[in-house]
Amino acid sequence: MTSRATATARVEKRPSRPRLHLVADVAPRDRRAHIACRLLNIAVAIAGLVIASPVMLAIAMLITVTSPGPVFYRQRRVGQDRRSGSRADDDERNVGGRPFTIFKFRTMRAARAGERPVWASRGDPRVTRLGRALRATRLDELPQLVNVLLGDMNVVGPRPEQVEIARELRSKIPGYALRHRVLPGITGLAQTTLGYDQSLDDVRRKIALDLEYVRQRSPINDIRIMARTPLVMLGGRGAL
Asked: Could you tell me the pTM of the whole model?
């Protein structure tokens, strides 16, 4: 057998990589579509803030009079992977995306000192009475429209996870960080389809939908997900 034939045989026997690890397969392929999606999300965020401002003011007043603590809840979440070469801090290298501060209306009692972040569960005793209503209608997520204007998020995209939890999930689930190839979102395909995460199996199912969204991302798909979101909010299905 000639050296060329030997090399060809070796190439043919080389196993192909799993699709989950093909970064190019889940990366946005059309820059114009990427820009169009971003402009669409900014426009929707501006309109949403204008329309929802009276509701947001009422919610802020209710939180103030019903439970001690701040009106807004701030937390570090993992955003889009924007690394270029060695330009990344330790947190971004460890979790696969640039951390940012997310804004929400506070729905839980004020956290105690040293309390570790954990997944919220059904009947979580930390959630206030008003907080349960806000979570059921997803109105606690309205302040994230500001995150959209700041460039940390889109209206539609994979849901951003807490830094500590994302670091743990990345070590346990192969391909987890691939969902950070696009900006995270307030709502998304996984959030309008499945419920709150309560186990690793729940996370795996959402990751599959997140990667499906990234592969098929377009302004039309974003509009479809946005159109489905009010039904989730009113019907109590899914988890934004």
From this structure: 0.76
